[in-house]
Amino acid sequence: MEVLKVSSKSKPQAVAAALAAVIKQGNKVEVQAIGAGAINQAVKAIAIARGYVAPLGYELVAIPAFTEVQINGEVRTAIKFIIKSITP
Description:
Elements: E1 2-6, H1 12-24, E2 29-33, H2 36-53, E3 60-71, E4 74-85
Parallel strand pairs: 1-2
Antiparallel strand pairs: 2-4, 3-4
Helix pairs in contact: 1-2
């Protein structure tokens, strides 16, 4: 599964393009974000990606969950979104 890490400075269009590319290959994507700003950018990217793939017949499902990630030796709690297509 491809993992995309999103920060508050990430451009939603760029994340969406990467997300859509992985979905078109038939794979799942995990989008990770830490903090309100990063989560905001991640959610925008998911919405934009849906716009990219919906005309091609893909319907996206986003499953939110908590995960722990290690940054500079410190364990942090992140939100992850597991994105998959239920079609085709």
